Structure prediction request, 398 residues.
Amino acid sequence: MAVRLPRPRRFDCYAAAAGLLGGLLLWGIGLGVRPADEPVVLFDGKWPLLVPLVVMAACELLRRSAPRTGLLIGTAALIGDTLTQGSLVTVIMYTDVMYAAVLYGPPASARRIPWITGLLTVAGTVVPFALWRQPEALLIGVAVGIVSFAPASTGLIVRNHREAADAALLRAEQTALLAEMDRVQAVTAERSRMARELHDMVANHLSAIAIHSTAALSLDDPATTRQALGVIRENSVEGLAEMRRLIGILRDDGGDTEPAAAPTLDGLGALVDGARANGLDVTLDAAPGENLPAPVELAAYRIVQESLTNALKHGSPGTVLVRLTRDETALRVRVTSPYGGRDTPRAPGSGAGLVGMRERAALLRGSFEAGAVADPGAPGGKIWAVCAVLPLTEGDLA
Prediction:
């Protein structure tokens, strides 16, 4: 099976053609490296030096596509060139082949070639001087270093700089990718937070409006209808106010206005009064204490708010108990309401209420549970319980 050599690069073709033409020019005018009567010249005349010249030009074609092969063949061609009168262009092309072998060759070759050429340079300096004891013998080592060690070292330096640049580019791309991932995560987290805020602020009022409007349409009682319309108007006004507050926060990108204050547990009384106005029988038992972290207060308020909304939409007639207790490590929120096993809510919902409460507790490294639990004293023997544990320590809020 024939071995197919890789196709040479265009620049390599130009370098080979230029080297061949330059060598032919020097050959034509009879300019060689050594005189014909020098003892090392075994092949006298002008024609023998063309063979190493042509072979070295062919090695230039392999300088990037097959650099190690080109170096091996080029070394043999250079040895053959030393047995003739020699051509300066052949030597120059060999330095380029050596440089390319280190720059474009495999990493192992790039590390070994400078060491090998360095040892050859030292040997070419020490051995001739030890044999002949002439200062001129040192020039042999200088020539070996110029032809082999210098281009190999230059190729290694350039390769290291290129690898360092490639590594810096890769790190920059990875940094940009990580920054984009962080941006996407931040946008996703912000969208989730906005969705929770919007749901918690507006769902309660819209649920009350839907329930009381249904009652107003189903009962032919002017007094009941008037009362229902009053509740509808109150909830619609409050819902619009909450919506305007949220829109104001979203549209204010200049920071010229102070942000609206987040709800705190001091507003639980007003929240319970609103739930009572919507028809719920609510009992509040709250002793949260003072100096609560702001994220904990907001999460607890929203969990109670959503629990009251769910009790209004899904719960059966009876007392809703809201209880907040605090110990050294956490604030515990528990909201219980009568559970009648209702499959269809009295007002449509998105089903995101429990998800939002669970996300709020998870953001604080807390826990959340919601579901029907047995209670012998309750109608039907069950109640719906929402339980959240919100840590207070800074380490848990990180």
Remarks:
- Confidence is low (pLDDT under 50) at residues 343-349.
- Residues 320 and 337 are 4 Å apart (CA to CA).
- The chain is about 60% helix and 10% strand.
- The two ends are 66 Å apart (CA to CA).
